[in-house]
């Protein structure tokens, strides 16, 4: 978990509703790949498969092409299995190719070694700052041709599904 805290289902829905039309935020709900067969209603099935979320924020007024990333895998049975890395690949690919992001930043609790490991060792982020008063570390990664190629390779298995409001 980079910075967000677990929310109840009602809180998650309320947050999603408030962000739906917001131009400086993007969030995706992370679903388990495990099928749930005992539930027939597809909405309930997806709700039961929710295991976290991944977000980015375009909140740097000095650099409108910088995205601050957050990821949370709230269901512990899915932690440590590469889910966060996979959804970050997908979110970063979307941010770069669809939104035009050219810099990424993350702020992580300095005790969250698992998240620091993902961003430094799996995604190539570099530490740029420590804020002892907030007990957090800041890591950054600029978008370059090598990162674009890696993101496209890492996400080549993914199928894009068009989202539409009813």
Question: Key features?
Answer:
single chain, 166 residues, alpha+beta, six-stranded mixed sheet, 34% helix, globular
What does this structure look like?
This protein is α+β, with helices and mostly antiparallel strands and 166 residues long. It has helices at residues 9-19, 42-49, 83-99, 113-122, 145-154; strands at residues 25-31, 50-57, 66-73, 103-109, 126-131, 136-142. A six-stranded mixed beta sheet has the order 1-2-3-4-6-5. The mean pLDDT is 84.
Low-pLDDT parts are: none
The main sheet comes to: 6 strands, mixed
* Terminus-to-terminus distance: 32 Å
Radius of gyration: 16 Å
Relative helix content? 25-40%
* Helix-and-strand structural type: alpha+beta
Average pLDDT, all residues: 84
Number of beta-strand segments: 6
Strand order of the largest sheet: 1-2-3-4-6-5
Q: Could you state the order of secondary-structure elements as H and E?
A: HEHEEHEHEEH
- Total of helices: 5
Please indicate the percent range of residues in DSSP E strands (runs of 2 or more). Answer: 25-35%
- The shape is globular
Task: Present the secondary structure layout.
Elements: H1 9-19, E1 25-31, H2 42-49, E2 50-57, E3 66-73, H3 83-99, E4 103-109, H4 113-122, E5 126-131, E6 136-142, H5 145-154
Parallel strand pairs: 3-4
Antiparallel strand pairs: 1-2, 2-3, 4-6, 5-6
Compact overview of the structure:
This protein is an alpha+beta fold. It has helices at residues 9-19, 42-49, 83-99, 113-122, 145-154, and strands at residues 25-31, 50-57, 66-73, 103-109, 126-131, 136-142. It has a 6-stranded mixed sheet with strand order 1-2-3-4-6-5.
């Amino acid at each position: 978990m980079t910075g967000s805290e677990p929310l109840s289902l009602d809180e998650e829905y309320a947050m999603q509703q408030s962000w739906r039309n917001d131009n400086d935020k993007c969030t995706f709900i992370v679903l388990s790949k495990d099928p749930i067969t005992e539930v027939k209603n597809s909405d309930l099935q997806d709700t039961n498969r929710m295991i976290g979320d991944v977000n980015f924020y375009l909140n740097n007024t000095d650099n409108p092409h910088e995205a601050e990333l957050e990821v949370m895998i709230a269901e512990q049975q899915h932690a440590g299995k590469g889910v966060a890395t996979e959804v970050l690949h997908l979110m970063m690919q979307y941010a770069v190719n669809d939104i035009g992001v050219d810099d990424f930043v993350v702020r992580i609790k300095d005790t969250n070694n698992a998240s620091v490991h993902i961003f430094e060792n799996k995604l190539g982020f570099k530490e740029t700052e420590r804020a002892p008063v907030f007990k957090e570390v800041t890591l950054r990664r600029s978008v370059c041709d090598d990162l674009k190629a890696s993101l496209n390779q890492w996400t080549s298995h993914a199928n894009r599904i068009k989202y539409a409001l009813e």
